[in-house]
Amino acid sequence: MYFLLLIISLLNFSYKGNLEIKDAWLRPAGKGMNTALYFKIVNTSDRADTLLSVSSSAAELVQMHETFKQGDMMGMRQVKAIAVDAKSVFEFKPGGFHIMVLNLKKDLKIGASAEFILHFKYAGSIRIKAKVKIPEDN
Amino acid sequence: MCLHKKTFYRMKKKIFYDIVFLTIVALAGCSQKPPVIHDLSKADYVLIDQDSSVVHFPKDYRGKTVVIGFIYTHCPDICPMTTNNIRLVENELIKENIGDVTYVDISFDPERDTPSVLKEYADVRGINTDNFHFLTGNKDVTKSLLKQCNVYAMPGDTTVIDGYTTYYFIHTDRISIMDKEGRIRAEYKGSTANREELIKDIKKIR
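Above: the input entities. Below: the C-alpha cells describing the complete assembly.
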C-alpha cells in the first residue's frame, strides 16, 4: 500500500474521476512577487466540466488569467471560469491561459514545489503539486 | 561555323561574369548589418542597475553589442519568457566563446522595479548579473528611453489584494539588438523570439 502511494506521489499528475492533471509547473519568483502556474487538464469522460477557481496557501491570491494581444501590445486579464469539453485536453501554457499566483508568501526557487487545489464544477477539488522550473525552450 | 563559336564563347564569358557578380552580391548580403532602426548613439539616459550602480545608457555599453529586453517584474507570463529567451541566447553565445555581447533587461515599471526587486528577479532565476544587467531609473527618464526605442507600456487590469490594488501593464513585447555605437538595428517579439534568428543577427551586427 505504501509502495503504491509512493509511486502515485512520484508521478507528475493528479487524477480524479475522469479528469487528469498533468505536467504542472510554475516559474520561479521571490516572496511578494507574482508567478504563473501551467498544467494540462485531460478530460477522458463524455461529460464536460468547468474549472471554477484555483487556491493555494503559497500565495495571497490565485486567479485564472489569459494573455491577450492588442495590436503590437501584450496584456492579460482575469477569466471567471475555464470550460473543459468532453474528451478534450485544455492546456494552461506560456503566452496563453495561465494561473496567476499573486503575492507569494515565500520565495519559490528552482527545484522547489508548491501545492494548489483546483476546484471543478463536477469533479470537485483536485490537489496538485507543481514543480518550480525554468524551461529550456519557453 | 566561326560565328557560332564566337557567340558560344561570348555566352560562356557572360555566364561566368554573371556567376561572379551574383556570388559577390550574395556574400555581401550575408555579412551586411541590418539598417539602423533607432539611433541612441547621442543619448545619455542615467539609469540604475540591480546593484544600485549608476549606468549611462547606452554610453557605458559602447564597444559591446547589446541584447535588450523590456520587462516588468510583476509580470508572470510574457516578461519572464523574454528574460528567459535572453538567458538562453547568452548561454548559447558563451558556448560559442562570443564575449563582446552584453545582455540587458530594462524595466518599464520603475516605481515597483527598484534595484533590490530587480536583483531578486535575477537571483531567483539563477541569472549571473556579471554580463546580464537589470536596469531601472527615474520614471521620466525611463519613459523617454522607452519612447526612443518605440516601446510602450500602459497600466491595464488591476486586482485588489488585502486592500491594496496591484496593476498589470499592456505593453510592447520586445527584444532589441543595439550595435557597438548605440544604434538599434533589430527588433523581435520578446516572448516568442526565434533564438536562432536572434543569434544569427547578433553575429551580423557585432
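Note for the figure: Chain A touches chain B through 37 residues (CB under 8 Å).
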